[in-house]
Design goal:
This protein is α/β, with parallel strands linked by helices. It folds into three domains: 5-125 and 318-327, Rossmann fold, CATH 3.40.50; 128-311, Rossmann fold; 333-525, 3-Layer(aba) Sandwich (Rossmann fold). 37% of the residues lie in helices and 20% in strands. The strands form three sheets. It has a seven-stranded mixed sheet, with helices on both faces. A six-stranded parallel sheet has the order 2-1-3-4-5-6, with helices on one face. Helix 18 links the parallel strand 16 and strand 17. Helix 2 crosses helix 3 (57-65), helix 6 packs parallel to helix 7 (184-199) and helix 10 packs across helix 13. The protein is elongated.
């Protein structure tokens, strides 16, 4: 039975991005918020499932002392990736998954930091209940907000763009709201914005609002809700932004959205319908929106809110984490034993047209190479065996129920015998066989051990019927994982060569959900 707790480890004051997700995870979440390495060490001891927020000091510490039975997830946001010392100190070999909030960051990480650790992009979540749908008006009020007046937000460029908008239609206003500058860098940006407002004579159209953002504001969003309720459009004009909470919150409240598409970290992944590919097109979009009716704005508001609800709500994103943690704790042996014990079978691949195709192919190979002895690893319920001309066959399986089914079904066939995989005792055969098994071995150690046994037990040939790709059909099917297994064979069993690939007569049709992802691959010992 899997551990139903998740230990969340984070530096003090940095858990606000994760909280909406934590609220929706169907495990008991134990929050461990500390400020020193010793606290992170203490908090990780004994924890089965661990989520470390931010790839910084806690991640370094926990990754170094993680045990084999523990499952470790690290969520990397962005800036950590450019702290090379952090990246080099984390023991990535002990990390089960690195989670990103943007797929471009994931690609950059695999290219520049580590390409062997498992990675996954899961967007941030928005607290839906915190933000209600606005009562919109015909006022052309646009809002941009963030935590700091930081140069990366490009508020200066936004003011320059806004000046061009008002040159064509003066009936617009812009509010830029951030925390009161507490750093020289932020103060400089704030001062530059004021200079531009004066330069373009926009003092009656552009307002810079200095917010008092404390710990409670990050939880209650009281100031932000007031701002959102008094505006009709939200704009994201950052030079680089991995997700942009402010934009998502604006859409959730029903505001029209304008997103700068020509910037680092392509925002089209999240905000395709609101992105503009140039300054010119964005200005045109803003001017067009300025002419829309109340009725049209209300229609847009419902569409925008629905998009956030469907894609970034706590429940939607929380379910992605639930699936990830379930998959990390998945045990393929238990799955198949439970499946057979409950009356299930080996699956559609062992029945109907696919059974016939496999039978014909195996019989052809047995006859062509005059193979007398066969070992199959993963014989399942044995339905595939009934029309194959085996002279000396031994089937192994991890499921006791499946082995008993086979023994009962073929008790009078002296050419066939069956045994639990754990009782394998060094037997070898002319041909070893693997049918629709490899993509069910989701755990790395289980896959490696299975492949070693499959090839070590062969005297001449190995016949594999499986998919051979790393493109996943459905990430949420926890007992299925595609692999390029031929690469594994090339690296680990150089004494075997692939001599024939036999394409499936009934290839998989995703739309109709028919056929199979598997083809036959025949290896011969050199």
């Amino acid at each position: 039975m899997r551990d139903k707790t998740l230990h969340f480890i984070c530096e003090k004051g940095k858990d606000h991005f994760a909280q909406p997700i934590i609220n929706a995870i169907n495990l008991t979440v134990i929050k461990r918020v500390g400020s020193n390495d010793l606290s992170h060490l203490i908090h990780s001891v004994g924890a089965k499932n661990i989520w470390v927020e931010w790839a910084s000091h806690p991640a370094i510490m926990v990754s170094k002392i993680k045990r084999p039975w523990q499952k470790l997830i690290i969520r990397l946001h962005r800036y950590e990736m450019y702290r090379k010392k952090w990246m080099h100190k984390i023991n990535w070999g002990n990390v089960d998954y690195v989670i990103f909030v943007n797929s471009e960051l994931e690609k950059e990480f695999k290219k520049t930091i580590n390409n062997s650790v498992k990675t996954l992009t899961i967007p941030n979540a928005i607290e839906i209940d915190t933000f209600s749908l606005n009562e919109l008006s015909n006022i052309n009020s646009i809002l941009a907000y963030g935590l700091h007046f930081h140069p990366v937000k490009a508020y200066d460029k936004l003011i320059e763009l806004f000046a061009k908008v008002t040159n064509q239609n003066p009936n617009f206003s812009l509010t830029i709201a951030c925390q009161k500058p507490t750093h020289q860098l932020y103060q400089k940006c704030f001062d530059e914005c004021n200079k531009l407002i004066a330069k373009f004579d926009l003092s009656d159209k552009v307002e810079l609002v200095e917010l008092n953002i404390g710990g409670d504001e990050l939880k209650t969003h009281s100031n932000i809700k007031l701002l959102l309720n008094s505006h009709n459009a939200i704009i994201s004009y950052s030079n680089t932004e991995s997700f942009h909470y402010a934009f998502a919150e604006g859409l959730l409240c029903g505001l029209q959205g304008f997103c700068r598409g020509w910037r680092e970290l392509n925002p089209y992944e999240f905000w395709n319908d609101w992105c503009y590919d140039s300054e010119k097109s964005m200005i045109e979009g803003i001017l067009d929106w300025g002419e829309t009716t109340i009725g049209k704005r209300q229609q847009i508001a419902k569409t925008n809110r629905k998009y956030i609800l469907d894609n970034f709500s706590s429940n939607v994103i929380g379910n992605k984490y639930n699936n990830l943690i379930n998959n990390l704790n998945f045990n393929s042996s238990n799955y198949w034993e439970n499946r057979y014990a409950k009356g299930g079978n080996s699956g559609s691949g062992s029945y109907g047209n696919l059974e016939i195709f496999k039978t014909e192919t195996i019989n052809h190979i047995l006859e062509k190479y005059n193979l007398c002895s066969v070992i199959e690893l993963g014989c399942g319920d044995g339905n595939q065996l009934k029309n194959i001309d085996y002279k000396n066959y031994k089937g192994f399986d991890i499921s006791k129920t499946a082995i008993n089914l086979c023994k009962k079904k073929y008790y009078n066939n002296k050419n066939l015998s069956f045994e639990l995989t754990k009782n394998y005792n060094g037997e070898t055969s002319n041909l070893t066989l693997s049918l629709d098994v490899i993509f069910h071995l989701t755990e790395e150690n289980v896959f490696n051990n299975y492949m070693k046994l499959l090839f070590n037990a062969s005297e001449q040939f190995v016949l594999i019927y499986s998919s051979n790709t790393d493109i996943q059909i459905d990430e949420e099917v926890k007992h299925f994982k595609n692999r390029i297994f031929t690469d594994w064979v090339t690296i680990n069993f150089k004494k075997f060569e692939l001599i024939e690939k036999i394409p499936n007569k009934y290839p998989y049709n995703r739309k109709l959900n028919t056929g199979s992802v598997s083809d036959f691959y025949l290896f011969k010992k050199k």
